[in-house]
Structures are given as C-alpha cells and as structure tokens.
Design goal:
This protein is an alpha+beta fold. Helix content is 37%, strand content 20%. The chain is built from 15 helices and 21 strands. It is elongated, with a radius of gyration of 40 Å.
Length: 626
C-alpha cells in the first residue's frame, strides 16, 4: 500500500510538471477594467480598484495615461497643461510638526511630531511611508467607479504653490494644481492653523473637474497610523491601531444613538462602512489619532484591514466621502492629548479610551495636568496627586484599621465560641446557634466584620482609575522623572523602584493587626508582596511611583491610627469547662429515680446536700491528714 501511494504521488507530480511545461495555460493579459466592470453605481467612499491603481503607481511618471495601450489614430494624446516638471517634496514646518508633501499626486508623504520621539530619539512618524508602496497614501483622491481616472490623479505631477512653507503666526495654505489637455482640472488645498491650541489640525479641500463636470471623489488615508511603541512589556496595556468613529450612523434606514464605535482590524470586515452624521471618523492607537471631522454634514467612511510584512500588528485604512461641492474636511493628526482634543472638538476627547471608569479618570487627569502646571515634572505631579487621593480616602482607611483592631480584640472570644461547636458537622442545624452567638458578640461590642474590607473596596475604583490614567495618558510618554528614570511610560531600567515598592508592602503588612484574618488569608497576604513585585518589574515607572507613594502614605497612616487607638486590649476568656453549669452527682446503678413532685424534689435536695456535706468532710479530713 505504501509503495502504491508513493507511486501515485510521483506520477501526479510528473503530470503537473509536464502540463505546466508543455501545455500550460495561455499567458495572462493585463487589462484595466472600465467603469462598467467595477461597479459604477457603487456608493460614495467605495474604491474597488486597488490592484489596478497599484499597477499604475509604479509606472513611469511621464506617462500617467494608459501608455501600455496603443492610442487610436484619431485620439490626441493627453498632454499636461498645468503641472510640475519633476517629482519633489514640499516641506511644511511649524513648532509642532514637520510634514512632507509629494507633488506626485499631491499626497502626504510624511507627518512627524516634534514633541514626541520614537525609540531612536527621532520625531515620531504617523504617516508610515514605509508601508505606502502600492497603497493609497494619505489624501489620495479616489474617483468611485473610475479606476483609470483615479490612477491618473495619483500619477500626475501637481504644481505646488510654494517650495517650502513655514507656519508662523498666521494661517497658511499649500495648494497643488494640475490640468491636462483632456479637460481634467484638479485643485488640492491644505490649510494650516497657526493657533497653538490646534497645531495638529489641517483642512483639506479638493475639486476634480472633467469635461463632464465636477466629479464626486473620496479622500483616502492609506497606510494606517504609526507611533506604536515596540519597547513596551507584556504588563503594559497597549492599544493597537483600530477603527474609531463617533456620531449617528444610519443602520437599517434609521439613525442610531450618538456613540463611540470601535473595531479592531479583525472585526472591520463585519461592518466596513458607516454612513450618517459622523462627528469624527478615522483610526487611532494607544497615543495617537488620525481622524476626519465631517461634523453635521452627511458623510460616509469605509474601513479596510491591512497586513504588512515586517509589522507584527495589523493596520486599518479608511476613506471618507462627502457630497460633491460640500467643502473641505478638517483633519486631526496628532497625539491624544485631552486639552488639545477638546480645543478641536468637544466630543473628540471620546477618542481616548479611559474605560468604564472615565467618570473618575477624567477628573484625575485634569488634576494631574493642573498640578504639572505648577510643578513642571510629571513624576512629582504623580506623587502630589497620590497624596491628595490618600487625603480623600483617609477616613475610609482609618475606619478600616480601627475595625481590624476591634476584630483583633474579639478573636479570643470568637475562638472560644468556635471551640464549643468544633465537634459538630457543617450540616448540623446546631451550628446555626454558633452563628447567632457570633452575631450577638458583634452586636454587643459594636463590631462589623465587613467594615474592615468595605472601606478598602470603595477605594478600588480610584486605584483602577489611576492605573487607567497612567496607562493611557500621552503626557507621560517620554516624560522624565529624575536620575535613571527618563520615561515614566516604560519600566524602571534598573528595577529599583519595584523592589522598594515590594519592601514597603512587606512592612505595611507587618503593621496590620495580628489575628484579624484567618490562616488562609494570612498566607495569601504573605504572597501578595512577592506577586506584586514580580509584576511591577515590567510596569510603567509612573505606575510604580504611584503605588510606592501610596504604600508609604498607608504605612504612615497605620502608625498614626495605631498610636491614636493605643495598644490592643487583650481579653482573657475562661475555658469552656469553667463556664458550664455543674451537674448533680450521678445516681448509683440500679437505684430507683426519685418520684416527681414535692417529695421527689426534697429527696433530690437532701441527697444533694448530703453528698455535698460528705464531699466537704472528706476534703477536710484529707487536709488534716496532709
């Protein structure tokens, strides 16, 4: 059987080789589909010709038209009328950005942020030019249903209005123009704001006119979004590039409620298009954002996932469309800084994913930036904000420590009650009486076992919100503290602060009242410093500084509370045998039990008195003998 299988595989392989060598399929002829074959009736924002466009992108610049096809003799060749004579980059610079626009297509080639550095210390790049080959670049113009015209727009050499542009105290505009003998006229305008509150905003306006009139177009943001850090650890939460929009998209003919919609690259195919009133739509990652802001105008956005060799995470492309003649579209391309986003659009701050505790995170974030305005160092700002938080939760922590002290004082009586019922099974109904005695003990001394845990549970939302703030705040990206800590958003390079934090947790546990927890809980609490120290070895330095400061303040508060409450009062509890009522002496075997009634009671009394007198006499005689 094995020989037959091997022979069959060999023969099949030979047949395939011979077929490809001698017969084979006819060579494929590359053709550019016309508008009828690409769905000319597709809605706005739908581009169905990336392969054809990619083939034309690599064509020689001098022949943007279909040079591969022989032109008919009665059709004059298309000749540029208004165009540039060579391909070049136009640099636009301000105090915050350094951008480069390619006159080939009038598209964005590079968009770097001066105030944010990558792993190599260079300004962070958001346009990702390394993955733009063969793909639509930012601000490419797509003509739905006409891939030939789309390719001509991409390959045309536009004439720029300036060779270099410096954004100072006044608004500036960069215009690209192109016109050819076929009647095609294109004008692309980029307007830049001089306001320091909106340094990452530009308004894009384009108009494409042919012999048939103004053509509806789609603006593409091609390669995704850069700025994802590669030096983060597994402990650090990092939001990878994803689709994001906010507004009222139309679904089944009805406008939905205004909300934020997010989709990872793997989830984009489930719903790639949104139409309606979109306040903003685009892509974002952990720290940066690139979105269009159509506002109240009817618009459409189309998303498409993108996998690129050499990049571990997937990207998301998007295209935004407005009605023809609707005007320009503002774009925000920059950091997810809360104040900057709020200055551009009040709802743009919703692009920052603070999670379900955003109602707590936002005030903490504003307070942190307010403190930084006075201190000028985010490390010290975190410490001061931690002090303020601990002042707010001081009553809760104080009540928790006092409750644990009271539970410690009641431990001897608790153990005495448990010892009396230790022989009973857990299913024995008599154990219900033990619970009643325990609750009576709590009521008599005014203790509540939940009061030691409940105050600490109430502080947990604040701790989680602070962790979310330090994980998402772009202000901490590259922010130094002091000494060896030069970036609060990455781990301590020498693991000094995590080890000190672990030691502070051990010392803090030793100050807790002994005996206030069960042996199982004590073992768990003993392991907590070890687990936290191991995890915080790779945590962001800002988070470790916060936790260390909180531990130090907790130690100080425990010391103060213990001094105010004084030493614990230890109560001596008698053994259970001493608290039991003495039983009468046992009757001899075979004796008749006393009758009920007065006589019986008197007989029991006399018998008991006699036995007691005999017992006392025997004890006295024994004493005299000794």
């Amino acid at each position: 059987m094995e020989r037959r299988v091997l022979l069959a595989v060999t023969l099949s392989f030979l047949v395939l080789v011979l077929y490809q060598q001698w017969i084979g399929p006819p060579p494929a002829i590359e053709t550019v589909p016309d508008a009828a074959d690409t769905g000319a009736g597709a809605g706005p924002g739908v581009s169905e010709a990336p392969p054809a466009r990619a083939a034309v992108v690599d064509a020689p610049v001098a022949t943007p038209a279909r040079a591969a096809d022989p032109a008919p003799a009665d059709v004059a060749p298309v000749v540029p009328v208004v165009a540039d004579d060579r391909q070049r980059l136009v640099v636009v610079e301000s105090d915050f950005i350094l951008a480069e626009f390619d006159n080939r297509g009038g598209e964005l080639a590079s968009w770097r942020l001066k105030d944010y550095a990558d792993e190599n210390g260079e300004p962070v790049e958001l346009a990702m030019p390394e993955v733009a080959a063969g793909r639509p670049r930012p601000f490419s113009m797509l003509v739905p249903g006409n891939p030939d015209l789309t390719a001509r727009l991409d390959a045309a050499l536009f004439r720029p209005s300036a060779d270099r542009l410096r954004i100072g105290g006044e608004a500036e505009a960069l215009t690209f123009e192109y016109e050819d003998s076929s009647g095609l006229r294109v004008r692309k305008t980029f307007r830049f704001q001089p306001s320091p509150e909106q340094p990452y905003v530009l308004e894009f306006d384009a108009e494409v006119t042919t012999a048939d009139g103004i053509r509806p177009t789609t603006t593409a943001w091609g390669p995704g979004l850069g700025g994802v850090r590669a030096d983060t650890s597994w402990f650090v939460f990092q939001q990878l590039p994803a689709a994001v929009l906010y507004g009222r998209p139309i679904e089944d003919g009805l406008a939905q409620d205004t909300d934020v919609y997010r989709a990872l690259p793997a989830d984009v195919p489930e719903r790639p298009s949104y139409e309606g009133q979109l306040d903003f739509a685009g892509v974002d990652n952990h720290y940066f954002l690139a979105v269009a802001l159509p506002g109240a105008r009817a618009s459409r956005v189309d998303y498409r996932p993108l996998s690129v060799a050499g990049i571990e995470h997937d990207l998301v492309e998007f295209e935004v469309s407005l009605e023809a003649g609707a005007g320009g579209i503002p774009f925000f391309i920059g950091p997810k800084d809360f104040d900057l986003l709020a200055a551009v659009h009040p709802d743009l701050v919703r692009a920052i994913d603070f999670g379900f505790l955003s109602v707590i995170v936002v005030p903490l974030h504003r307070t942190l930036k307010w403190i930084h305005g006075f201190v000028g160092n985010y490390g010290w700002s975190i410490i001061l904000l931690t002090v303020l938080i601990n002042i707010v939760i001081f009553p809760l922590r104080h009540k928790s420590v006092v409750s644990m002290r009271k539970m410690q004082e009641l431990q001897p009586e608790m153990k005495a009650i448990q010892a009396r019922y230790s022989g009973l099974k857990a299913t024995d109904p008599a154990r219900q009486k033990m619970n009643q005695e325990v609750m009576e003990l709590y009521r008599r001394h005014g203790a509540n076992p939940a009061s030691g845990c409940l105050p600490m549970l109430l502080t947990m939302p604040i701790l989680i919100a602070f962790y979310r703030l330090l994980s998402m705040a772009v202000e901490l990206r590259g922010a130094p503290f002091m000494g060896w800590i030069d970036d609060l958003s990455v781990q301590d390079p020498f693991y000094v602060t995590p080890l000190i934090m672990g030691a502070s947790m051990v010392y803090q546990q030793r100050l807790q009242p002994a005996g206030a927890a069960s042996p199982e809980q004590q073992r768990i609490m003993t392991l907590m410093p070890v687990l936290f120290t191991v995890m915080f070895l790779w945590a962001p330095s800002g988070l470790v500084i916060y936790w260390l400061t909180s531990n130090v303040l907790g130690i100080g508060q425990t010391v103060v509370t213990n001094r105010l409450a004084g030493p614990p009062r230890v109560k001596q509890v008698r053994p259970p045998a001493e608290r039991q009522v003495k039983k009468p002496a046992a009757e001899p075997a075979g004796s008749e039990p006393p009758r009920e009634g007065a006589g019986g009671r008197q007989g029991r009394d006399r018998s008991g008195s006699k036995a007691a007198r005999q017992g006392r006499g025997s004890r006295r005689s024994r004493g005299k003998g000794r």
